[in-house]
Amino acid sequence: MLTLALTSSTALVGVAIADGHELLAMDSVMTERRHAETITPMVGEVLDRSGSDLHAIDRIVVDIGPGRYTGLRVGITTAKMLAFALSVPVVPVTSFELIGMAVAEIDHAGPVVAVVDARRDQVFAAVVGNGDPGRGPLVVAPADFAASLPPNSLLVGDGADRYIEEFGRWATVEPGVVPNIAGGACVGGERPSTPAARIEPLYLREPDAAINIKTRPGVGAVTRR
Fold it and tell me: CA 62 to CA 46: how far, in whole Å?
């Protein structure tokens, strides 16, 4: 089964293609604002390097977040457009799952927690290994989260990197861990799929780009997304 996987929920834009569990090709780049300009040509490059034809793709894996609002929309919109064009299903995975795949081989006795930068002085967090799977997903201020961490916690993800000084007093931080899109492609054939029209971002809170508009005197503000 040929699976194309996409991630753009964080500063990492990544594309991978796998045949079953065999990774054929992948590419990734760190970018703050160029998710839309990066992901589409990257799909073409990865297909070329893998020797695969776009129309041979059987399913698409997409990172649904949580993460950056604009990045999420770019990745999910790209996945939906491809899925509609190819008449293939989509497999949603969370950024927490992809970060968890990136540290699956780390030997750590305590809880492993994926921490994604949520901006606005907050993080998204969830346990991804060796802990209570019911802990998360959370949207929380770094200081509050740090003080509530179980003993011997290991924190990974761009949120852990950004607030490493805050978290480092309470837990171990493994820096530089990003979503493992290659792992996402390799397990995509085993995961439940869903029609593209039903794929939605996992926001966990209102998007940063909400706009308040006063329509006229006497009428309350309207928020558009």
Answer: 15
